[in-house]
């Protein structure tokens, strides 16, 4: 009788062991499925190409104080789930930006910020040439079905009212492209203010970058939303 009881106890113990194993497996499957379901409901991370010149590249500043890093921090704070791809090169004109566009697209962005034209203005280059270059950039991004935020620029006032007006008119015409997001002046609130610029009077200091980021952020958030809808 003791032997029979021992066999029954062993079988019961074995069944309990199997049940414990099945419970652990089931819990694991449930947790994995729950994590997978949560991942499916989270919005995708939007990759934003920031194609620009020294203003994008953060000329004269530590990386953490530049436009890309501070825009990234602002997007993170806003919970935007977006990453900014730094494609700013100091000294670039609109022609230079066009020339390296295909290389920049190799990072497979979902959207783009285009900030070019400041060096065209500083060098007094023909506005119609800048318009052709920017149009070609926007056409290529449109062909890739990428939402775009175009940042406008003003020419230096010392080049005369005629040049200033022609330069500004380029961005006004481009701003009317269907579906394009447009921020009229990248240096809004910063240009001409010595307290917000470095010693050259052209490139923003960290305080100036803060103002630029605060100004453009609402449009960048719209860009992220458009990219998410498109993707």
Automatic annotation (TrEMBL):
It comes from the Bacteria. CDD domains: Lysophospholipase_L1_like. Transmembrane segments: none annotated. InterPro entries: Ester_Hydrolysis_Enzymes, SGNH_hydro, SGNH_hydro_sf. This is Arylesterase. Residues 50-209 form the SGNH hydrolase-type esterase domain.
